[in-house]
Amino acid sequence: MLSCLSSRRAPGQAKAACSRAWLAPTCCSMSTSDSAARYSRGAIILHWLIALLIVGNFIGAWTSEDLPRDQKMIIMGYHKANGVLILLLTLVRIGWRFVYRPPALLATLKTWEATLARATHALFYLLMLAVPLAGLGLHSAFGKGKPVSMFGLFDFPALPVGSDKPTIGLYHELHEVTATAMLLLIGLHVAAALKHQFLDRDGTMARMLPFLR
Ligand code: HEM
Ligand code: HEM
């Protein structure tokens, strides 16, 4: 399918001409494997579902801080179940990525942009495993091996870690540091997505959003 997503045009300028690209192929120089290529439907669903759950977990952790203990316990219960769900969905997503290879990065990206994109994506996958695992470690150490209740539906086993103070401190530190790194990475990732959408207009966003053209 021929699309004009990666052609650098002023807003609205060559859009009409590009929609008739099959009549005048010279209007768009991109190839079919460039920005016309999208992530698979499954990868798109997993991306946005996990992103939503991650944002929810940050909001939950922050808002629970100032609440009375009983309310904090309820929110943290959801935080933990949500976090384990993120861990499980990330494993599915990594498996999915092996089966359905993602589209190649846009050929129009500068070398530093492509390197940064690859590094950001790899670090994201690492953190999507490390943040919930550290949280699970913290829960396991603090709760002396008590399982995590998955929204009251079933129990997810705790990690086999000690419950002494240094272990609790270690996992607490790990959870906080990895969550902060994830937050910084989300900031960078969203800024990059907005830059591609509104400054470069190269169709990067459409690769991950099925309703964008
Ligand atoms: C991607 C998933 C997760 C994210 C983004 C996340 C994020 C956070 C953040 C930002 C905090 C506040 C950090 C602080 O200032 O101490 C926090 C606290 C906490 N998280 Fe998570 N978390 C996730 C998964 C989990 C999981 C899976 C568990 C346990 C099963 C968990 C257990 C906890 C606990 C027990 C605290 C409270 C620490 C305290 O009271 O100081 N988290 N989390
Ligand atoms: C908040 C948590 C988020 C996480 C953890 C996350 C993670 C990721 C990862 C790992 C990839 C690479 C996919 C792969 O190649 O397998 C990716 C791609 C992408 N993300 Fe996110 N993302 C998040 C939020 C967002 C948001 C809010 C936006 C838009 C504002 C966004 C826009 C995109 C786009 C456009 C791509 C495709 C990049 C490309 O084609 O090269 N993401 N994201």
UniProtKB/TrEMBL annotation:
Q: Report whether RNA-binding shows up as a keyword of the record.
A: no
**Record-linked InterPro entries:** Cyt_b561_bac/Ni-Hgenase, Cytochrome_b561_oxidase, Di-haem_cyt_TM
Q: How does it sit in the membrane?
A: Multi-pass membrane protein
Where do transmembrane segments lie in this chain? 43-63, 83-100, 121-142, 177-194
Q: Which domain of life is it from?
A: Bacteria
GO terms, biological process: respiratory electron transport chain
- Needed co-factor(s): heme b
In the UniProt record, does the keyword Transport occur? yes
Chief location category: membrane
SUPFAM superfamilies for this protein: Transmembrane di-heme cytochromes
Query: A single GO CC term, please?
Result: plasma membrane
Q: Name one GO molecular function term.
A: electron transfer activity
Location comes to: Cell membrane
Which positions fall inside the Cytochrome b561 bacterial/Ni-hydrogenase domain? 38-210
Q: Name one Pfam family in it.
A: Ni_hydr_CYTB
- Record keywords: Cell membrane, Electron transport, Heme, Iron, Membrane, Metal-binding, Transmembrane, Transmembrane helix, Transport
Its family remark reads: Belongs to the cytochrome b561 family.
Full protein name: Cytochrome b
Q: State the species of origin.
A: Novosphingobium ginsenosidimutans
